[in-house]
Amino acid sequence: MLKNKKFLWGAGIIAIILVVVIAISTSAVSIETIAVKEGNIQRTVTDTGIVQSVTNYDLQTISGGRVADILVEVGQDVSEGQTIALLSNSDITIQKSNIKSQLAQARSAKLKIKATIDNLQSELSEAEKHLNRMEELYIANAISRVEYDEAVLAVDTINQSLTNSNEQLSAANEQVDVLNQSYRELGTNELDLTITSPIDGTIMSLPISKEQVLMPGAIVSTVAVDEQMEIKSHILSDELGGIELGQKVELTAPVLGDESLWGKVTKVYPRAEEKMSALGVAQRRVPVIISLEGTGNLKPGYETTVTIYTQSKEDVLKVPREVIMSLSDGEKQVRFVKDGRVVYNDVETGLSDNYNIEIKQGLNLGDEVITDTRIDLSPNTRVKIK
């Protein structure tokens, strides 16, 4: 009988303990936590970029014209001075013919004036000799004053004609010079109808077709040195603050597969440009040039993803950014679990990246930080980690 009582007492105590344990466990709030870790934080700026040649030339027409012939094709290697396309311009041909005719007439007129001057100079020489004889006779009272004055007038008239002819010759020379200059310029324009490559390179574009009429300044072809390539990326002006020359850049692209290429920032443009986003939103973006350490199988015009490494810290305490709670006074807090209960603590943060943030003060390595800041938990609340 005594044994039965002892058994019942023991069973009752066990039952009470189980009830208490169950009550305690059921009253605790289930939460998820993440441990404070030590590691590296790498801040980056990621955007798209377009591959382009370091050295490239847009070949343009000077006078415009009709495309008479195209001697190369896109992707073809060309050498310096090689002809790419031939243009024809009937206006230049007509103008050149007209000026050539005018030039012939001007030269003929010039020769006639020179002949006239030669004749006048001969006449002047004879008239001056005659005047000298008449002056001697007039002094000797052998002729009248009227006869002497006639000899003087003859010399003056020839001199005036000679002056006029010299002026005409000067004007004719000037006209010939102007026409010669115009003829040379038209010749240069005619030479400009032959489009040649300024470098040893590759034809990157050829946006013309035979018989097409091109306006002055139209692009005939783009020639580039495709072995020397770089990336041009347009970075949002809000993200430009941390970007500096020399920073490391990682490049990925579908054409590269799992391979990454590396480069560095070599140029940041001094002003922003307005660009439209894919959603049609106007954005202020700054062009950034990235040099490449290797090109892989990239080609000009390919799109890449560029990741610029702007700041980094090694071996620091870090937690996910979403566990940080910002207070109205600007302070920051986290909630972590200690001895099964919620503890609130102010923290000092440092560098952050897209996922993690540095903890300078307020947490220790291994502390279990509550991940969901939306759960309403008072300090000292009993919690159970899932």
Automatic annotation (TrEMBL):
Please state the protein's primary subcellular location. other
User: Where, by residue number, does the polypeptide cross the bilayer?
Assistant: 7-31
GO MF term set: transmembrane transporter activity
Where does the source fall among the domains of life?
Bacteria
Where found, per UniProt? Cell envelope
UniProt keywords (A-Z) are:
Coiled coil, Membrane, Transmembrane, Transmembrane helix
- Record Pfam families: HH_MFP_RND
One GO CC annotation: membrane
Q: Where do the Multidrug resistance protein MdtA-like alpha-helical hairpin domain residues begin and end?
A: 112-172
To which protein family does this belong? Belongs to the membrane fusion protein (MFP) (TC 8.A.1) family.
Q: Which NCBIfam families match?
A: RND_mfp
The protein's name: Multidrug resistance protein MdtA-like alpha-helical hairpin domain-containing protein
Q: Which organism is it from?
A: Candidatus Syntrophocurvum alkaliphilum
Recite the lineage of the species. Bacteria, Bacillati, Bacillota, Clostridia, Eubacteriales
